[in-house]
Each structure stands twice: as C-alpha cells, then as structure tokens.
Amino acid sequence: MIDLVKRPRRNRQNTWVRSMTQETFIGPQHFIYPLFIHTGTGRIPIKSMPGCDRLSLDELYLEAQAALQDDVRAIVLFPAIPEAQKTKDAKEAYNENGLIPTALRELKKRFPELVLITDVALDPYSSDGHDGLVSDQGVILNDETIEILCKQAVCQARAGADIISPSDMMDGRVGEIRKALDREGFTHVSILAYTAKYASSFYGPFRDALDSAPRFGDKKTYQMNPANAREALIEASLDEAEGADMIMVKPGGPFLDVIYRLRMHSNLPIAAYQVSGEYAMLKAAAQNGWLNEKKTVLESLMAFRRAGADVILTYYARQASRWLKEEQRY
Ligand code: PBG
Asked: Does ligand 1 come within 6 angstroms of the Cβ of 206?
C-alpha cells in the first residue's frame, strides 16, 4: 500500500456520492432551439444536417408545439429567402409582411409561452450573401449597415420578438439597436449579442441550409479571427456598455476557453452556440456507429455549462431534453 492521504476517488465511489459532488447541471431550461424556415410548403431535409429540415410555416407551428411538449421553450428563427427577393440593399430584412415577421405574429398568437428569438443580420436577404451592406469596392459598410439592422430589429420587435440577437458583428450595433428599440417603445425587448462570433469554418452546413454563403470573399473583416481570445474581452466590454442583456460565444465547442474567459470577466448571462458544423460532426459519427450519440451529445452540452455558459443554442435541443428526461437528470 502506498502512503496516500488524498484520494480523490473517494468522491467518485458510488452513484450517490458522485451526484452529491456533481458541480454542473443541465436541463431544457438552458436550451434555445434554432429553426430554419422557408416560404414554400412542407419540410425540406438539409443534407449536411441530418434530422434538421427547412420548415414551411405550417411545419414550424407543429415543430414549435412539439418543442414545447419536450419542455423546450425558446426558439430562434432563421429564414431561407427566395433568390428573387435578395437585393444589394437587403430591404426584405425589414419587410413587415416578410417571412420572419409573419412567423413571429402567428407563433405569438398560438404559443404565448414560447420565447421568440430572432437573428439580426443581412446575409439571408443580401444578394452579396454578407451580413452587412457592400460598397462598390467590395467593402462591408459598418455605419450604413447599422441603419438597416435597426429597422430589422424594430420590425421583428413589432411582430412579437422577445429577444433580438444581432449576429452581424458590425461595430456599435448593439447600442444603436437598443436606442432604436427604446425609441419605438420596445424597452422590454432584450438583446442577446453575438459578442465573440468567429470567422469559423464550422458554419458550412448552416450556409447550405439557407443558401446564404458569401458570394465573394469571406467574413474576416467583421467576424473575429479564431486565433484571438483577448479580443473577445474587448467585444464583451463594448456590448455590455452598449446595453446587451446577454452575450454569446460562437462557435461554442471549439471556443470553450473563450466562454470561460467571458465568464471570468462578465456578470451577464452567457450563451454558447453549438453550431451547424458541430452538429454535423456528432451526427455523422453517430450515423456511422462511431460514437454513442446520446452520451456524446449530452457530454458536449454539459461541457458548455461547465465552461460557464448559461444558455446553449443547439440543434439537439428537443432530442437532448428527451434524453435528459429519460434519465431523470433534471
Ligand atoms: C448569419 C449566421 C450564421 C450562423 C448564425 N447566424 C452564419 C454566418 O455567419 O455565416 C451560423 C449558425 C450555424 O452554423 O449553426 N448571420
């Protein structure tokens, strides 16, 4: 026998002791469920995201109801806009009768208990496929874009959005959106800022889902360099000062260290986005029988919470809630 006073294994000796000493918990209250919608009919499967579909409005209402039944009470909507409605000025982004406002009004009526979150950015509506307006020289215009984002945010609030989520990464947009919402009487509508959104290759399947890939270049002049973590703290200070109610790190899994740094630095709730590429990796491995889907997904979601995230945007939201319920883990 070796002379050991400290034996951490004592705290792992059986299920009961393990659950007494468990540090992190997860439940459906932590999930936000992203949904893709389109103007057509039915469900269109998304090839690179098996199990996720583009939903017609009718299918959206069914999915929202199913989500509520699984105790998932927050959804975020992403629109697939027909090519013919995309323009350089992305004006469809604030069309009151557009896809997103129509969906919001109807969801609010049918499911008042559902938390409705919207994405603010121009890429689904832009013929350039960029989050901002593009100058003739191919430059992404900051301040001009913000004017449109404010119109988009107010239009979404008017239609019933509870939380507005700017994902565009223009400088100063949180403050301007806050002012625009307040001016129009939407002081109760929250802003969940994509604070540290990286120019990541893990968004590939999402861009397939919406046909929203940039038509030229990349998003590196506005989204963050994946090599940078300190810079996330600068973004967080700015978003906080501008009035963000919650801040986000995206992608989540490859950037857990950034979630942790923001947790150390900010007292705001933190959201993490398990993005389309993360979903695709887990799904592909599971479909090949290479990973146990349930166990690896729940572990990946717990990792976000352990790193310091309060809320997780995940395409697995419904499924994970059902798995957790099966295991009576909440
Ligand atoms: C666009 C937006 C993107 C995602 C959410 N909002 C893609 C991008 O920035 O190109 C990605 C989500 C995912 O990959 O799951 N503003």
From this structure: yes
